[in-house]
UniProtKB/TrEMBL annotation:
Protein name (database record): ArsR/SmtB family transcription factor
Domain HTH arsR-type: 1-90
Gene3D superfamilies: Winged helix-like DNA-binding domain superfamily/Winged helix DNA-binding domain
InterPro entries on file: ArsR-like_HTH, HTH_ArsR_DNA-bd_dom, WH-like_DNA-bd_sf, WH_DNA-bd_sf
Native organism: Mucilaginibacter angelicae
Matches recorded under NCBIfam families: HTH_metalloreg (NF033788)
Top-level taxon in the UniProt lineage: Bacteria
């Protein structure tokens, strides 16, 4: 079974978030990315692979180097999800607040 990767999986890991943040400043070769982390080259390569599969970065071969570039527009999916979730939870909290106020008023009427 092939695992489907998405932007949420990409940002789920703190190392991947740091790689995205680093690449948001501009394209970098793999060596430049690896230099900022205290993990093995293989570990960063795995994170790069996940980010690429999620569509968060592009990886192009330039001579002997692999150059990675962020695709920040992919974060729109996260932004949209957060906005919709905020609306939904805002509505639910308003309903809860009204429910609690109504029950509090009914309780005072019974005294």
């Amino acid at each position: 079974m092939i695992e489907r990767r998405d932007v949420f999986q990409a940002i789920a890991d703190p190392t991947r978030r740091m790689i995205i943040q680093k690449l948001s400043q501009g394209p970098q070769n793999l060596a430049g990315i690896i230099a900022d982390f205290e993990v093995s080259r293989q570990a960063i390569a795995k994170h790069i692979k996940v980010l690429h599969e999620c569509g968060m970065i592009t990886v192009t071969q330039k001579g002997r180097e692999q150059v990675c570039e962020a695709r920040m527009e992919q974060l729109d999916e996260v932004s949209n999800w957060v906005s919709e979730s905020k609306k939904l939870w805002g509505q639910r909290f308003k309903q809860l607040e009204k429910f609690l106020e109504d029950n509090h008023q009914r309780g005072n009427e019974l005294k």
